[in-house]
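Reviewer has doubts. Consider these tokens.
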Amino acid sequence: MEIILLQDIKTLGSKDDIISVKNGYGRNFLIPKKKAIVANSSNKKILAENKKQQAHKEAKLKDEALAMATQLKDKKVTIGAKVSSTGKIFGSVNTIQLAEAINKLGFDIDRKQISIEEDVIKGIGEYVAKIKLHKEVIVDFNFEVVSE
């Protein structure tokens, strides 16, 4: 029996894959649980149209992410932190503070999109963070931690 998966299933495949399974597994488990539909000709045509529309949307999102990436490459942010006499920061600088500083520049970046290469930033200096704007667009962003 051929079916079209409606969601990712670890042992079978990912969403929108057309796969063959045993009749009982498809009829008694996957289809009633809304994890798959029968892969007849009309459902295949619908799937092809959905994939085409999704590809168009993905291309548009990727272009927007590339445009934002070119703008972000030129920018640099300074983050102020309270520093002890030895040069260590009280606490640490994290992605929340970095996201707030970037958003003040006029960008809409969520903290979950940012990953800092070093585990914990506890000193002043220049650092690099990676911002994931799209699954294929990742930009390096330079920022500096200074004493307040």
